[in-house]
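BACKBONE GEOMETRY TOKENS:
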Amino acid sequence: MNVKRNMKRGDWTAWKGGKGWMAAGWRLCREACVVGLLGLSAWSAQAQGTAPLKEVTFLLAAPPGELAFAPFMLAQSKGYYAQEGLKIRWIAVHGGAAVGKQLAAGNGDIGDALGDTPIVLRSNGVNVKGVALLGGHPLHQFITRADRNIAQASDLKGKTLSVMSYEDTSYYVTLGILAAGKLSKSDVTIYAGGPNGVWQDVASGRSDGLVGTPEWGARVEETGVKVHYRPTDQLTPGMGQAIIASDKKIASDPQTIAKFVRATMKAMTEIEADPVAASKAYVSAVPSYADKLDFVTKVLTYYAKYVFPSRLRPGEFDPAIVSHVQNSYVDKKVVRSAQPVESLYTNQFIPAAQ
């Protein structure tokens, strides 16, 4: 396989065990300009004279400024976590697989990944599962430059693609896309660019396309480059962004997980119902987007139309889809064998339909 790391300076701090990775993650959160949100819950509790909030460490698969995390940031800024008695500490690590590994090791309470992630991790002895799904459609999009004439997966032969990292689920989705075109990883060059390089390489022409979040495509378009978007489930089975937790945490502290899921689903459904209003609330809450209302509105509207809608309750996993995705991973030899489907997710924390 032609794979190349392309980590641009400042994208990621080297992650180390124990306090090192936690401190590095906190610096990354601070650099993403969302620190103002982190103190909101504590202030609310003090102002209202309520009981102290329970501190919860939530691991993000990328810097918190990514718009994929809008449901989390809006739930925080609107006080939904505080209303549930929670104070959230956000820590960024390097991809969804890393989130799961850290949670299983006890270095965090809950985290963000894809619904696919437990399929990969549990087959390797990392016991985490999905506790809520952020949307009925895949988070990852297959985004290609319009001038590279990529009409179908088979057109990728000899091309270059970018993903965030080789540990991130976007890489595994890329393998599925290649398989849909009867190609393998040896037929393409894959760059791991980090959260900035992944889209910058497409904008500069170094890469022909990327597999990643809708906002990365929008960032490429901001540079004047036209791109085509394709939901990845048109080519390979996949799931949306998910909240995940370790088996141990689910057993020992289900109340905290239920509270976090309830607050997050409330924010997600608000985005789906009115992305314009949600975008205004988001730019007011996140200083780094204060002058980017049009950009945020474009991206959140995409999420509201193409990612969040589901025929099930908000957050609910469909066991048939989970099974289909896992079978695809086994067929493509991403994992050696299938795990019991019920071990990969739980719907016990999904709020009842209103």
Remarks:
- Residues 2-7+140-234 form a domain with the D-Maltodextrin-Binding Protein; domain 2 fold (CATH 3.40.190.10).
- DSSP finds 15 helices and eleven strands in the chain.
